[in-house]
Design goal:
single chain, 1102 residues, alpha/beta, eleven-stranded mixed β-sheet, 42 helices, globular, NACHT_NTPase, DUF4559, NACHT domain-containing protein, P-loop_NTPase
Length: 1102
Amino acid sequence: MADLKEKIRDHKMVNLIKCILAGFVTRDALIPFVTNVMEDVKIYLRRQTKNVTCGICSTSNAIDCPAKGTCNIYQRKCSFHSKQKFKQCVNGVCQTVRNAIAQLHRHTNPSWCNTDATQWLTESWEVAKCFLPPKGYDDKDSADKTDINGIINLIINCRQFDNEIDDDLCKQENVCTMVREKMRDIRHASQTKVSDDVMHDVINALTNLLKDIRRSDSVPECINAIRKLNEIKQDNFDIKSQSIDVQQDVWKELVSLNVEDKVEYLYHHFSTKIQIMSTEIATLKDAPETKHARLTEDFQEDLKNFYIKFKNQLPIYPLPPRVKGMVEHLYVTPNVIRLDHGKFNRESQPHRHSFRKSYSADELHLSDILLYHGNIVNEVYIEGEPGVGKTAFCVKTALAWASKRVPTDPDRFFQSETLGQFKFVFLVFLRDFSGRECDIDKMIYHHILTNLPAKYTDQFLQRLLDEEVCLIILDGLDEWRHNNNSDCFCGAQTMIPRRRMRDKCVVLTTTRPWKMAFARMSSDIEIEHRFEITGVKDPRDLAEKVIQCLNNKTGRNVLPDDFFNSVEEHNLTHCLNVPVLNMQLLYLWYTGGKLGSSVCDIYKNMIDMLFGQLRMRLSSGSDMEQLRDDANDKTQDDLLEKLQKLAFDTLIDHERESSIVFDQSVVDKVLNSEEKKKSLQVGILTQRSFLQPNAQHGTVLSFLHKTFQEFLAARHIATSVSQTYNLEKSLANLDGHLLKIQDIATFFEFLCGIDSEKAVAFSASLMNFVSYDCEAKLNAIGTENSVQDLQNLHIIQQAQDLILKGLRESKSNQHEAHLYLTHVTDRHVKNTEVWRELVERNESRIVSVYLEDHNDKPTIDVFRSVFASSNDTLVYVTLKERRTAIDLSRCRHLKYLCIAGEKELAKTTASTESMITCSLERVSEWTEKVMFAALSKNSECLQNLHVHQCKHTNDLVNMLPELKNLKRLKICHVDFTKEPIERLSETLTYVYFELVTINVVTLDRLTKSYEGSSHSVTFKLKECHVVPQQEFISFKENISSSNKYNVMKDGYKMQAQNLHLDDVFDGMDEMYVFKYSLNPNTKLKPDDRKCTTLYDRTVSRV
């Protein structure tokens, strides 16, 4: 038996030798063929230049920067053009040849890094190298030195061969791609065992290629090669019959396949001379570049197969996770919006609750997310609420890269040309490493490489990440937290996993918005691109695909239109844009369940359905005793009560990442082993295993979906938490910071539908938190901030939308909660009647108001009523682009007032006795006069003043010295040459003039007035006109030479020296910032620099 096994193994090793030899035979036959075609290409190129040659321009000179797939720009530096820059060819030749080569390339993406442009018109193989793979072929100066993989890629990529091959090379699968795939499979045969079937497939593919060459019957090399391939297939073929040179080539190939430990078994198949030479030849295995190039190709193929085999399914909610559908059958193109430079612009997108496609104003594709002006960006963040399809997006991206077929994507969101720029795509689910690993490289190794052949080491991975263009996808930043190891190099407080700085790597991270907001506040994150997935473009398409998938599983023939009609009848169309709700509604309807009339009804019915499905499964089994127990609702209710407690306890975990995925020990505190087993059987809990860094397997659990957890937590508060429970404490844990209001939106919506009294208390606590946040921002701001930042508009609008959403759910459940709303804005209100009703109910407790221009009289009347009724509560008011009169004179507690863009007929009066910040931007003449007078008389609390344009400069000049406690002053668009400022408040620490005209005498007087002051004062001039100019130069020289001042920026000087201000101030023109300091030699504190960061950004980009 042992001898038989040896013979079988030996036979399969011979098959490997045959495949390798067949590759060499085919390559040798193709060499004259491809050489002749490339000579024709050279002649064609010379015709394009009318036989004019250059020979001077290097490849870097000939290629524009950035070039797709070649240039890697990091911090505005291109590695390909680092030594020689692009320039126009003096002979007018090289760019013409370059364009012609690009047009000949099937993907218009030649491998410029392979080739020498000085030889394009003299050496045909230098042109051929433009069509070879970009790695490992730059030193191959002839076809004889190029392996079969390079030859096949040349035929595939160069359009000139379309006229020489019968098969259509534009197809995804053709005679050439078949050869490429088969030969790659052979290189993957790391066990040196190749079956007869595989060997025959390889040789048949090679034979078919040779036969497909037009007029191959008249090409002697092809005829001989086809005959030779037929001989190799025979059982009695002996490689010893081949020449020593051929045997030596085959032996070298075997050694390079990383199977050195198996080569000894192959000795006896070769001639004695080869066996003697084997020790010398085996040293070729130490040729690292050749070996690494082959290993890289093998790894790419294995990685793609790994995704296709193990990541090609998505769950159909609310079915248990084991019930899934193929990604290509379920996935629908997402609706993605851009969040530029961290600004919240969700409200600018259309909100459609219909069955038509939902398109953003700016149609985005994957290229817009991963590339910027054709070049990769290093950091991309994609936000999204629970259930909108973030994880599905990540899986689809990896599969689109791995797919060997053109993806069925009618919207062309996942363009192959975009993903084709990445050599590797690494998909990591961060929840599997929460609290266990913080290094991205280690996550990739444990998540992916441990599932692939052992030849792929950690060192190999590090080299790939350093050298290749890679896309790293990190899904679920909000589900990850740092480990508790205080000795960790990156520090235990980091908000994001640790990554190394690599100019060729794109790190795409998905997260819920609250984690993004926290991460942006930390110093360990930089954002180049920020986007949001708001749902799917076509809700109907998603529903149709899921119905088709369910029909295939059940054998039914359910029509999608019946579902859509039912959803419309129940007024639930607004739920369809969120994929998870779409699928839950659909499955509930598909199985004959009641849809209900509210979101709470949907989730209650789905949970009942999950328990019912378990009873049906058990009824066909043997455990009838358990079935009878389950038939009793009390058993189900008892388990639900415990699940509700588990949901609540984990949801309010102060470490929010632990609230989604939690350890076994957390579950054991609430559920016994039988209850846990039943919860997993029902499908409301899911369990996953993961590989820890110490190679031990661990287990984590989570709810079926985050929304189920929030629904059960809301039920726990409603049924098990007393009315005296400290809801503010729960809100603090649940929310942690008001930038995470979105994160509690679903939970609050459920609470409003279940328990209106608790919802009212919760809304009051929420409004208190908004007030605390506004107060904190008010005491921290300076005059650099925009009006919206000062007024916390983003948070206020989110909170108001949250309350309105909860009110709708409350009404849908036949009870109306009298929810608190103390922060009000009229921006982007969808249901004005409900909003007015809510504001009128709370008008005596309003704390902040953000009012824009409204010709709508009912809305204006609502605000006037608020101003009249909230005298004792109103603190923050913003009035923009207004024509009407507003009286705030009785609002004694008003701390913040911003008036912007008033029309001439507008009139505003306000109490200033408690005012801390006042911003008057382009106000009416009447308002200006009244407010200047009020501030002159009563401004004891005023610390921040912003005046933009002024109609009565004299009134402003007279008012400024009266502001006894002013700390920060910003003045824009004012001419002080006729009415100069005599003095300013002694308490000022920051003076900012923008587009101001001022005499240098006035500036000098104001500056010197603070010499001897007990505190530091910063002066900033942005695009100001200081006259006379020559004296301003002298003024600056005196400041620079004085030991009392620090000059922080001098844009005027840089402009005078004709320097590129775009590289210094990011587009800002003249800038001069200097600071009087008691000790100028002391380094500036971070607080001292805050005033310059917004407008004085350096080359570093965000």
